[in-house]
Amino acid sequence: MQSPLELTDQIFSPPAKHEALRDEIYCQIMKQMTSNNNRFSIEQGWQLLWLCCGLFPPSQSLLRHAQKFLESRRREPLASDCLQRLQSSLRTDPRKLPPHQVEVDAIQQNSTQIFHKIYFPNDTDEIFEVATSTRIRDLIQNISKNLKLASADGFSIFVKTHDKVLSLNDADYFFDSLRQITDWSKQAKRIKEGGPVNIVYHVFFMRKLWFNVIPGRDAKADLIFHYPQELPKYLRGYHVCTKEEMVNIAALLFWVKVSGDKNQIAMIPKVLKELVPGDQLKAMSENEWRKNIVTFFNKQAGMTVEEAKIAFLKAVCRWPTFGCAFFEVKQTSEPDFPDIVRIAISKTGLTIMHPKTKSVLANHPYNKIANWCSGSTYFHMTVGSLVKGNKFLCETSLGYKMDDLITSYVNMYLRERTMQTRGQRYNM
C-alpha cells in the first residue's frame, strides 16, 4: 500500500519541475471527475484539484476551461475554494515542490484551513494558520503581529530535525521549505538506516540577527526571545566579565528561579550551575558565592521576575559579545592560533577568540571578508582581497550555520545601503 503522500508525489512532482506537464494534470483530474458516478472517486478528485490549484495555475489557453469547470460545479463543497486558490496562484510564483504532508492530511480531512504549531525559545508555543501560498516573510510578520512585537526585523523561522537546526529563507514558500528539509533528512536517514523512515521536525520562531536590540525597549521580545536565547550563552562562559558582574547576575537569575522568595536562599549552592558561568564556578568557594549572591539578592526587593530578566539583559548587553552566535571549531590555517578556537559572529563581523582565555585573536568586519563557503565538515573564508587575501580554514559540522548567519548579516547591510541610496536619490 502506498501512502497518500507517495501518491500525491507521483502526481505533482513532475509538473512542479516541468511547466509543460501542468495542463496535463488539470485535464486528467477534470476528466476523471466528468460523468463519474462514484462519489468516493469524485471526492478524491476534488481533493486533488484543491491541491493542484494551490501549487500552480494552468496555462492561459486552459485557464478559461478550468474556471468554467469550477463555476459549473459551485454546489460542490470545494469548488469555490478551488476557484479562489486558482485566482491566487495566478498572482504568485508557482510552488517548486509537491504538497507537504500537512497539506495532504488537511484536505483528506476536508479541512481547507491549515494550522501549524510554532515553538518559541521561552518553552511556549502557539498554533498559526498557514496557507499554501504563505511565504516565510508572511509568517514572520503574522507571528510578530500576533505577539505584539515592536518590530519583526531580525527574527526568523527555523526548522529543527534530529540532527540540524536550519533557518528558512524569507522569500520561500513555507511548505516548500518544510518539504525540502524533511526530504533531505529522509534521504540522509534512509542512506544511514535503510528502509522507510519517519522524520520528526519542529518549527521555531527566534531572533536570528541581533541589531537594534536594546533591552527594556520591547519587553515582549525581551521575555519571549532575548532572555531565553542569551541565558545559555552566558552560563556556557562565552563572555568576559568581572566577579562583581557575575555575582550581580547570579542574584538576578536566582531571583527569577525562586520568584524573589528569600526563604529559598539555602538552596543557592545546589543551583550554582544555573547562576554562574560554568568556567567560573571555582573562582570562589560555594560559601563565598552564596554570601556574595545573598548581598545582591537582598538589594532586589520589590522587583518582579520579568524585571529581573530584563535587568539580566541590561547587564549582558554592555559586553561586545552580547547577541553573538558562538562556534567552537578546529582551525588549520593559522600556526600562531590554538588548534581549537571560538568564533563569534555578530552584527559587526566575525571574531576569532581563544576558547580558554577568551582573548581576541582576530577581528574581521564584514567589509573585509571577501568570500566564504561551507560543507558538511568545513567552513572556509578569505579575508582581504580575493587575489591576495588570507584564507582561514576550519573543520566543523556547523559550517552551514556560520555560512547562513554571515550571509544574512551581509544581506541586511546591503539592503540598508540600497535603501539609503534610494533615499538620497529621492531627496535630490
Automatic annotation (TrEMBL):
What keywords are annotated for this sequence in UniProt?
Actin-binding, ATP-binding, Cytoplasm, Motor protein, Nucleotide-binding, Repeat
Q: Could you tell me where this protein is found in the cell?
A: Cytoplasm
InterPro entries in the record: Band_41_domain, FERM/acyl-CoA-bd_prot_sf, FERM_2, FERM_central, FERM_domain, IRS_PTB, MyoVII_FERM_C2, MyTH4_dom
Protein's UniProt keywords contain Iron-sulfur: no
- Chain ranges of the FERM domain: 114-417
What parts of the sequence cross the membrane? none
**Top-rank taxon, per record:** Eukaryota
Entry keyword annotation includes Methyltransferase: no
Residue ranges constituting the MyTH4 domain according to the UniProt record: 1-108
User: Which is a Pfam family this sequence falls into?
Assistant: MyTH4
Cross-referenced SMART domains: B41, MyTH4
Per UniProt, residues of the PID domain are 341-370
Q: Which family does it belong to?
A: Belongs to the TRAFAC class myosin-kinesin ATPase superfamily. Myosin family.
Q: What is the name attached to this protein's record?
A: Uncharacterized protein
Q: Which organism is it from?
A: Ataeniobius toweri
